[in-house]
Specification:
By secondary structure, this protein is an alpha+beta fold. Helices cover about 35% and strands about 20% of the residues. The termini are far apart.
C-alpha cells in the first residue's frame, strides 16, 4: 500500500509535480516501510492524462478532506446527474418518497475509472467519450483491451493494467477495486439490482465500449 501524503494542490500541474518530486512511503507485506519515487516513464503517462484533460485526475482535497477541485471522475458523475432524469416513487407503505437515478452512481463511477485507467494513451488523437442516449449510456475508451483481456473475462473479473501508475493512484484514492473485480462487483451487480439489465461490453477495432441500459 502506497501513501501519497497531503493531497492539497491548486492545479493539476502542482499535483503532478508533487507526485514526482516527493519521496513516497510504501508498506510491504511484512510491515516494513520503504521510500520510493516514481520514474520518468511513469511520469510521462500521467503527464499525458493532464495534457489531454487539463484537470486533476483525482479530486484535490484540503487538510479537512474537503474537495477543493473536482477530479475527472467527479466531473463525469456530475455530468451524468445533470443530464439524466431522476424518477421518484413511494416506498412500501407510502410513508416516504424515494428518488432513483437513471443509472446507479457506483456503476457509472467504476465505468469512468476503468476508462481512465485502461485506455491507450498512445492514441493521442482520440479521447474517452461519455454519451447519454434516451435508452442507454455509453463510455467509449480508445484502444484495444490490454494483455489478452476479453469482454467475457472482464464480466467475471480479471487483473490487467495498461497504465500501472494511474491504476495505483486511483486505487490509493479509493477510486478503484484493488482485486480487479470492479466490473462484476460494481457494474454488473449494481445494474442488476437497479433495473435488471446486464452491461454490454464491446471491443471493436481500436476502441472499447461499455454500455449501460436504462
Amino acid at each position: 500500500a502506497a501513501s501519497h501524503g497531503p493531497r492539497v494542490a491548486r492545479s493539476a500541474v502542482e499535483q503532478l509535480t508533487w507526485w514526482f518530486e516527493t519521496a513516497h512511503t510504501s508498506e510491504l507485506a511484512d510491515g516494513t516501510q520503504m521510500q520510493f519515487r516514481y520514474c520518468f516513464a511513469q511520469r510521462e503517462a500521467v503527464e499525458t492524462v493532464i495534457w489531454l484533460y487539463d484537470v486533476p485526475l483525482t479530486p484535490l482535497l484540503s487538510d479537512a478532506d474537503e474537495i477543493v477541485e473536482a477530479g475527472l471522475v467527479e466531473q463525469a458523475l456530475a455530468f451524468v446527474q445533470r443530464n439524466t432524469a431522476v424518477a421518484g416513487h413511494l416506498e412500501e407503505g407510502g410513508a416516504r418518497r424515494e428518488e432513483v437515478s437513471a443509472y446507479p452512481r457506483e456503476a457509472v463511477r467504476e465505468a469512468v475509472v476503468n476508462a481512465l485507467v485502461h485506455r491507450d494513451y498512445l492514441l493521442s488523437s482520440t479521447d474517452i467519450e461519455l454519451t447519454i442516449y434516451d435508452d442507454r449510456m455509453e463510455i467509449v475508451s480508445p484502444g484495444r483491451l490490454p494483455n489478452g483481456i476479453t469482454p467475457a473475462r472482464m464480466l467475471t473479473g480479471c487483473r490487467a493494467a495498461r497504465n500501472q501508475l494511474i491504476k495505483d493512484v486511483m486505487r490509493d484514492y479509493r477510486c478503484l477495486e484493488n482485486s480487479g473485480m470492479g466490473v462484476p462487483r460494481k457494474i454488473v451487480k449494481c445494474m442488476r439490482e437497479h433495473n435488471g439489465t446486464e452491461p454490454v461490453l464491446i471491443e471493436d477495432g481500436e476502441r472499447f465500449t461499455l454500455r449501460l441500459l436504462r
